[in-house]
């Protein structure tokens, strides 16, 4: 492949992370392989994109199972892992995208991608301090908290799994929308301190410190109006007991990385749910353009106003670090949203 | 008390059904007592109403418990049972109501009631074939099916406990709103036949005939879009498994007469609920004026068009039959909505 003065250099080959074999038990480094493949020049209507940052999501583990129950196709053996990346156009054979454009894609963990221009979405490179800000669970958190649970003025809000990729954004979204009090749960003293000291939670507790229902009732003596669930199990059951009348529940947990886990089948106390007229909204979203737009607009404004902390861990070191970053995320060794920097 | 030519005769004393003692175990005839009390002439702003029909609801059993968890006050020992009646004004000392007016009230099981005119709601006596039609779970069924579950054109709808007071109306409401297929469950072959032969259900099954999930899947191979639940337990769990994406659930069961029963704590399969983006709306309603209005308007039109069967059992024999009618209802010996004719 040749380069000239107007275009960045492009190597002849580049690496990608592939699924080595389907997952049936615990995930290990052996489930991934890194392959070297040719970088293909774009044909008419195509562009070539260099990957700058890739997202790391717990759901990727589920997509490594052949019988994945998620409503998207699971990964194929020999195909790329991943599904949320940002990059820079380095060759273009389509008038809709120019060399240098920042784009979002679902191309997987490869250093370069050649594909039709329509499969990339152009981004505003001036909106955020880093293009990695485009990679988060933000659209999921915003849709659940703003559209489904409708957290707003005066609400008492409880977020389970509050230090995770979704939870660390969801609590702040509620606060920015005027919630009176935002309470979070997490699995360690360090995470509890992080919620209150860095993410603006009004109160937080470690779910290991006693029955969730007792801890929650102490922190929300008049009940909760909104519950944003990332966990299921005991936390869901406690939230029903502590719910105020007409409380709204956005349930997005018990999903990612938790297939076969223990949080997936809580008891639903129907009598309490009925007499309190609760609204239960379990949901999964794969980020429609409208959801991405709503999230991006709001978080950019809140960031510019100094009201929002963007909790992100950027793993340096390139493509070779991606499998380990997923393993670390699944082991609970990260807080907030995780990306791996490939380039840029 | 005197009468003249312009007003109906009124006796000096009349009977009422009182709570003899609070319920702690099984309900028996000994929990009721019938007392003879003076009929009081209305003072300024008051009217005297003769009770024509009283409603019989399973929830009355719950209100007989001192620790009733419903968000309305339980019955007091020595106070009247009941809470949904229609009657006729026989004396008026208020310009807003005239002798002969048909009214609705929440005055309990008494033959006569003297109270402020504002505690009665005037009805249109020409709307229905009998004033007993004003006594039903219709507002509950309509609110759940139309407002919460939003059953409409092309929907496949499942109603559990479909032969009961709410269910026998809910399925027909779905059908009148354009549902493609309405499926009901009940607890006997006779009730199953009644659903299909008389209430216009497209299919029905006896939940004793095998696992609910298998029976439901056979009758709804492409899934259900709406679930209207009167039961909880296994029927709720099955509905989650057979739900189509974005199915709406109105959950009004596991409530009336079921405190301490087995249907109240089903497992919620969160993974399935999340990936299918279900909408779960547990609710109880005590019939707001708007809900009564919406139900009354629609059922009157559907009845006039010959599209609706009003499933009602009217127990004859006056006030002495009321306690037994409640016991029969709780024992499953009635279908549809139950009223007792006191007069009229």
TrEMBL record, chains A, B:
Source species of the chain: Kitasatospora albolonga
CDD domains: PGDH (cd05288)
Protein name, entry field: NADP-dependent oxidoreductase
Taxonomy of the source species: Bacteria, Bacillati, Actinomycetota, Actinomycetes, Kitasatosporales
One annotated GO molecular function: oxidoreductase activity
Keywords: Oxidoreductase
Residues in Enoyl reductase (ER) domain copies: 30-340
InterPro entries named in the record: ADH-like_C (IPR013149), ADH_N_2 (IPR041694), ER (IPR020843), GroES-like_sf (IPR011032), MDR_fam (IPR045010), NAD(P)-bd_dom_sf (IPR036291)
């Amino acid at each position: 492949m040749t380069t000239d003065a107007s275009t960045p250099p492009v190597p002849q080959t580049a690496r990608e992370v592939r699924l080595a074999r389907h997952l049936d038990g615990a995930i290990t480094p052996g489930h991934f392989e890194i392959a070297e493949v040719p970088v293909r020049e774009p044909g008419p209507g195509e562009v070539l994109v260099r990957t700058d940052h890739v997202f790391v999501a717990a759901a990727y583990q589920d997509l490594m199972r052949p019988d994945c129950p998620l409503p998207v196709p699971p990964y194929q053996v020999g195909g790329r892992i991943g599904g949320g990346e940002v990059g820079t156009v380095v060759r273009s054979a389509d008038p809709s995208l120019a060399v240098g454009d920042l784009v979002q894609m679902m191309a997987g963990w490869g250093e370069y991608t050649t594909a039709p221009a329509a499969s990339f979405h152009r981004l505003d490179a001036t909106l955020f301090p880093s293009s990695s800000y485009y990679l988060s669970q933000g659209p999921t958190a915003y849709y659940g908290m703003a559209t489904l649970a409708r957290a707003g003025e005066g609400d008492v809000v409880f977020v389970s799994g509050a230090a995770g990729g979704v939870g660390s954004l969801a609590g702040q979204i509620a606060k920015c929308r005027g919630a009176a009090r935002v309470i979070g749960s997490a699995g360690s003293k360090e995470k509890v301190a992080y919620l209150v000291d860095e993410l603006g939670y009004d109160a937080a507790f470690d779910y290991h410190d006693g029955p969730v229902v007792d801890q929650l009732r102490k922190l929300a003596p008049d009940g909760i109006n909104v519950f944003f669930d990332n966990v299921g199990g005991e936390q869901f059951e406690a939230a029903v007991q502590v719910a105020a009348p007409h409380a709204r529940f956005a349930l997005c947990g018990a999903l990612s990385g938790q297939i076969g886990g223990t949080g997936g089948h809580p008891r639903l106390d129907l009598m309490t749910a009925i007499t309190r007229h609760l609204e239960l909204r379990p949901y999964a979203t794969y980020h429609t353009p409208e959801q991405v737009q709503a999230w991006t607009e709001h978080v950019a404004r809140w960031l510019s106003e100094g009201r929002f902390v963007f909790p992100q861990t950027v793993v340096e070191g390139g493509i070779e670090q991606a499998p380990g970053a997923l393993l670390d995320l699944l082991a609970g060794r990260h807080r907030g949203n995780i990306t791996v920097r490939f380039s840029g």
